Amino acid sequence: MAFSVTAIFLFILLANRGEPEHDLVKATKEYNDYLASPAHQALIYPEEGDRAEGKAAIIALVRNNELREMSQSMRELEETFNRKFKYTWIFFNDEPFDDKFKRITSSLTDAETQYGTKP
Predict the structure, then answer these.
(1) Residues 34, 65: one domain?
(2) How far apart are CA 54 and CA 73, in angstroms?
(3) How far apart are CA 28 and CA 79, in angstroms?
């Protein structure tokens, strides 16, 4: 008997809850709508004349044999940040960069690339 009363009481409580406090489907739709909105798109892809005009560069201390790791880092940074601003990439090494390193890193960006040595 006590079990039946408890079960009925819980059923009534759950049935009268109404809309859940955290509606994941609704929140996901609102977030996706925001991502597609013109306001958000303007943040991601600013107009050509509206880009940052500060003087900056991305500097990397890297060796020729670290090309694979540097390439992955460049891809990630270009996809998330630098494709908008096109800051110059400056690479320093303790020996001259080989042609393969220069060719691959310069192909990963639309920005200018510079290479130097630092003992």
Answers:
(1) no
(2) 23
(3) 23
Residues 68 and 34 in one domain: no
Which pTM value belongs to this model? 0.57
**72 Rama sector, left if φ>0, alpha if ψ -120 to 50, beta otherwise:** alpha
Same domain, 64 and 119: yes
Task: Report the pLDDT value the prediction gives residue 85, as an integer from 0 to 100.
Answer: 84
110 close to 79: Cβ distance less than 8 angstroms: no
Question: Splitting the chain (119 residues) into consecutive groups of 10 residues, what average pLDDT does each group show?
Answer: 62 61 74 77 62 78 96 92 89 96 95 93
- Residue written as token pair 């079990």: 3
Question: Do both 83 and 39 map to the same domain?
Answer: no
The residue among 80, 63, 67, 66 whose CA lies nearest residue 107 is 67
- Nearest alpha-carbon partner for 66 in 31, 28, 95, 36: 95
Measured distance CA(89)–CA(60) in Å, rounded: 8
Segment (H or E) for 61: strand 57-61
Q: How many domains does the chain have?
A: 2
